[in-house]
Write a sequence for this structure.
DNA sequence: TTGACATTCAAACCTGTGTTTGAAAGTTTT
DNA sequence: AAAACTTTCAAACACAGGTTTGAATGTCAA
């Protein structure tokens, strides 16, 4: 089976290398040559095994999703029996883990974050297959926290606010590192961040219920308030 | 004065075109040819008037800052006499305005947002000269809202949370458009967004005071709480 | 008016990137 | 063992993007 192993080795080496570099640099800034160098393969190998760079990227997205798929199923199942508070913390923790963790399991989160900043042809499918389910989960949590008077717009704005906080640590990391170096968290240090974002968001979301009945009718707080 | 006008016209046309395209596409995805096309100038004009693309970019950043500079001074001065609530709203409104507005005055905000996602050599200076003063303003607001027991870490985490919400609408716009089309705001529609982010953030920040004394000591809420 | 200087221009240059090509080498099938 | 198929490889190709070059044109100063 020497042939088969050799066959899998080059293709798999390319997948591995590409997963890592795409996750780190995004599609645009990743060169085929760099992937091949890291995979110890000839530059034409990408075309031989995957057809072109774009299809390699698509295969990497698929592969990365597989690597993270099993873990997500158990997370979602476990979350359904929890309070919305714990579910929110779980969501934030998983989200940030995908951004800060190292290794194959974290590629998917990083690739998604990258794709959001620099969309390729893969964005549409990614939104429908990956982002929307996550958004639904967070919507569910948000509705439960606000209560039955929650409007769709409220829920969605809150979802975006929670996700925006998390993604900010990915998208603007070079700035945050310069501005507040102590906020440059590694994978082992995200508990502080998880706690903050969860708490910040919980307070805000829970206040939506009381505000809907009260200050919303009065048009919000004013300077004189 | 035909020479002087013609001289200014080409150079200024380049600055204008570059301001617009850089703000829209960022440094990397902007080509010298596209700038020159829009400016109705020869492709070598960038090198003639600015030396190279990078220096053109640096000049655009400087110019954009001038265009937004006067407006910012009056905003800051006015804000000092206001409550932290109004100041926060003003901050969010200005921030989002810079992202969604059209025209030269908005270049600076867009260029900064772009630079955060895709850092160039200009990032260090930009953080020190532009981002940090804005962060200080938001820190000041946050400290006033939390009160004297506010820790530096708390304040900074809150600053990042507020800014992250705003920037999310810039950085991940293609995703938000697909996920929640009704949240794709134009310049005339940001009042909903300003109100939401302000409210969300105010509630969260104000809850930091009570949480510091209480739940923080108990290690936060648990499932059984 | 001529010379000096400034501006504009098209073409060439250089480098980088993804892809193609065809030969060589390796492996499997007949 | 030969033919068929697969994999690998280096070089070439095609194109994009920033920069350089030198001539032509325009403007200003002597």
């Amino acid at each position: 089976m020497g042939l088969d192993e050799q066959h899998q080795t080059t293709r798999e080496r390319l997948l591995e290398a590409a997963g890592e570099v795409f996750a780190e640099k995004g599609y645009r800034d990743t060169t085929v040559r760099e992937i091949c160098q890291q995979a110890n393969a000839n530059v034409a190998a990408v075309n031989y095994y995957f057809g072109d760079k774009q299809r390699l990227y698509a295969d990497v997205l698929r592969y990365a999703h597989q690597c993270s798929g099993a873990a997500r199923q158990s997370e979602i199942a476990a979350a359904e029996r929890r309070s919305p508070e714990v579910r929110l913390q779980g969501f934030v923790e998983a989200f940030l883990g995908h951004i800060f963790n190292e290794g194959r399991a974290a590629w998917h989160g990083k690739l998604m974050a990258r794709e959001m900043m620099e969309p390729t042809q893969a964005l549409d499918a990614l939104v429908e297959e990956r982002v929307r389910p996550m958004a639904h989960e967070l919507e569910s949590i948000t509705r439960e926290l606000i209560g039955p008077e929650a409007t769709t717009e409220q829920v969605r704005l809150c979802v975006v606010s929670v996700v925006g906080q998390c993604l900010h640590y990915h998208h603007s990391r070079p700035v945050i590192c310069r501005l507040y170096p102590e906020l440059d968290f590694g994978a082992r240090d995200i508990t502080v961040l998880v706690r903050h974002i969860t708490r910040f968001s919980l307070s805000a979301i829970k206040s939506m219920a009381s505000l809907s009945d009260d200050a919303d009718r009065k048009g919000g707080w004013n300077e004189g308030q």
Residues 26 and 118 of chain A are 8 Å apart (CA to CA). Chain A has ten helices and no strands. Residues 2-29 of chain A form the longest helix (28 residues).
